[in-house]
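Our collaborator T.R. sent over the components below with a one-line note: 'Predict the complex.' Nothing else. No constraints on interfaces, no templates requested, no preferences about which chain binds where. So this is a plain run: every listed entity goes in together, and whatever single assembly comes back becomes the starting point for the next discussion.
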Amino acid sequence: MNTKEKILDEALTLFSEKGYANVFVGDIAERVGIKAPSLYKHYKNKQAIFDAIIDEMNRRFEEQAKAMQINGNDAAKDAGIYKSMSEDRLLKLGREFFLYYLHDDYNRKFRKMLTIEQFHEKDLAEEYSKLYVDDPLSYQGMLFGFMVTAGVLKTDNVQVMTLHFYAPIYFMLTVCDRQPEREPEMLKLLDAHIIQFDRLYGRNE
Amino acid sequence: MNTKEKILDEALTLFSEKGYANVFVGDIAERVGIKAPSLYKHYKNKQAIFDAIIDEMNRRFEEQAKAMQINGNDAAKDAGIYKSMSEDRLLKLGREFFLYYLHDDYNRKFRKMLTIEQFHEKDLAEEYSKLYVDDPLSYQGMLFGFMVTAGVLKTDNVQVMTLHFYAPIYFMLTVCDRQPEREPEMLKLLDAHIIQFDRLYGRNE
DNA sequence: CAAAATGGCTAATTCAAATTAGCCATATTT
DNA sequence: AAATATGGCTAATTTGAATTAGCCATTTTG
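Returned assembly:
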């Protein structure tokens, strides 16, 4: 990782802990191991660092979204995967998804940073909603749509069913971001949530 | 409202929009209609204004909690209320609760302020979780407990049922805080959520 | 009613943080 | 290998926001 990248990385860490306004250019520089003025050889000013983080994260998320779409489309062709979706398997998938979002550094830090900055600019509010509201609902909605078609789940309203799956996960994620020490408690609750979700919406043969 | 109160009020408004660090003492003073130095006749410094907001809000929430506990205890005695809890009535109650938290100025602004500041201090993280995670789950859990006893709802796991009711409401509330223009969309989704919740957990005679 | 407290003001003061200037060694290019 | 670009540094500079000093009119209180 070169200095320019290291700056983004350390800035993201600091922004996610204290928010943009409480982080000083000198703090970032110190972590990177250089002096504040040297930072200006890499970025025009503090705001440019923030903007570069947003751009970089957008790039990564788009990349990820593209990958998921490919998987999603493949998945659509193979309804068999969903027919064999047992409660155990759903549990494992849900837990994996949760822990990935919770522990992946880029995801976690970026989510916390946006949480702090979401009211500051309209763009950031939209970004937040896209990443943590609309994209997950739409992607998971698609998967659940397949599962309904495959007869593994049943409902009149896939949109609300997806909300019933995702909102508790989102909720528990925000608890862990705020109070990491509650992670074990939330993991237990996560399991209970998924089991009950499966019983409520599952075919229950 | 005297000057001292007006300062808290305007400070809360500003903090909820921009966060503590982006609000200048001069901004608060201007809104109140005085000059910045005059502010120091009322509060020791900027931090003291923030602290006073937290104290005042704690006072109000405790007051509210006390009132709810009284209602809750009364309600416990009168299981009849719950037996006659129709889908329509549940819808109306849920909507009222949602709109109250969304539109009540103190609630909305304080929630947004805590959202921004939650990672800044452990106390604030705990305050946030108390107000928007543990208290609602415990209060609503109590009510749902009565409803299960009364036979209006059925479940093996009241805690998760409560999560299934509340997490989507919390989720939609955060969307509206961030993008108020999505309120109509969220209200529709709220209704659909409650209706489906009732069908999933209701006795369904 | 006199004295003390209150709450406003303008004019400093202080201080910290962002940014710029300008120097220098090293690496890269031609 | 000379010329140029890169990326580091220290020492200013600038700016802007928080806070203090000290004055004054009004209100409250003994």
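Summary for T.R.: The radius of gyration of chain B is 20 Å.
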